[in-house]
Design brief:
Rossmann fold, five-stranded parallel beta sheet, two-stranded antiparallel sheet, 5 helices, alpha/beta, 36% helix
């Protein structure tokens, strides 16, 4: 697997926990990331993102007033947004079939079970950003086509 350039990776962290955002920022910076944008909920991120292109989104599932599922569906449905095709991982406090279904329906590339280590984050992000991404249009919604490793 090819190593990514964290220094040139623009990362969005969307989580209502200030402490968890600080931990994630620290992890990303320890890998070499220099551009990390933080938001406290989905609506806050969409406002901060404007027309900015991100390379990676790390998004919490449960936030108010806009959770991670609604935020990513809105982003994937905005036809001219430069971050519409951004790799996105859902950070969830539970690991069950329902959360996986919701994540896939919203357009996430996968789920990270919270809390996770820096090594788990680095491995998942390296794998995700090193793979070519395929997409399919469903009306205005852009859905990633997920493939199993090795396919």
């Amino acid at each position: 697997m090819a190593k990514i350039s964290w220094r040139h990776t623009i990362i969005g962290i969307v989580d209502d926990s200030t402490d968890w955002r600080r931990v994630l920022r620290g992890m990303c910076q320890s890998f070499g990331a220099t551009e990390v944008v933080e938001a406290a909920d989905g609506a806050d991120f969409l406002s901060l993102a404007g027309n900015r292109a991100f390379d990676l989104l790390l998004v919490d599932d449960e936030m108010q007033p806009m959770d991670g599922f609604l935020m990513l569906r809105a982003l994937r449905s905005t036809v001219d947004h430069p971050s519409r095709r951004t790799a996105a991982l859902l950070m969830a406090g539970r690991n069950d079939v329902e959360i996986l279904r919701q994540a896939l329906y919203a357009g996430f590339h996968g789920v990270l079970l919270k809390p996770f280590s820096a090594q788990v984050l680095a491995d998942r992000v390296e794998r995700l950003l090193s793979m070519p991404m395929s997409w399919k249009e469903q009306g205005d919604f852009l859905q990633p086509i997920l493939t199993k490793p090795g396919q």
